[in-house]
Design a protein that fits this description.
126 residues, mainly beta, 11 strands, 0% helix
Length: 126
């Protein structure tokens, strides 16, 4: 069973950047499809981005497309989310998730993932 730990969150002004990291342990990250989700106060958890096991395929939510970039380093068992041009509406708790099965159309839904990290808070001030 893989354990996931996110880091890199913080407080940033609108227009700024942050890079989130997700460290995986207890398993080989290359065996997992990895995703990022976020949840703002009073809102449901929403999909942000996902990356295939080899890193060759990615999907982004429309709200972050062109601003966020997901990447992975399987040698380091890590996944990253580079967030640029941040907006106040990006404020949320960000979660890393892992799926130990194939890439499927439902990969943008949280129920497709088996393992979750504790989250890291991102706050964007206006």
């Amino acid at each position: 069973q893989v354990q996931l730990v996110e880091s890199g969150g913080g407080l940033v002004q609108a227009g700024g950047s942050l890079r989130l990291s997700c460290a995986a342990s207890g398993g080989t990250s290359s065996n997992y499809v990895m995703g990022w989700f976020r949840q703002a106060p009073g809102k449901e958890r929403e999909f942000v981005s996902t990356i295939s096991r080899g890193g060759g395929s990615t999907i982004y939510a429309d709200s972050v497309k062109g601003r966020f970039t997901i990447s992975r380093d399987n040698a380091k068992n890590a996944v990253y989310l580079q967030m640029n041009s941040l907006k106040p509406e990006d404020t949320a708790e960000y979660y890393c998730a892992a799926r130990p099965r194939d890439w499927v159309p439902s990969i943008i839904h949280d129920y497709a993932y088996d393992y979750w990290g504790q989250g890291t808070q991102v706050t964007v001030s206006s």
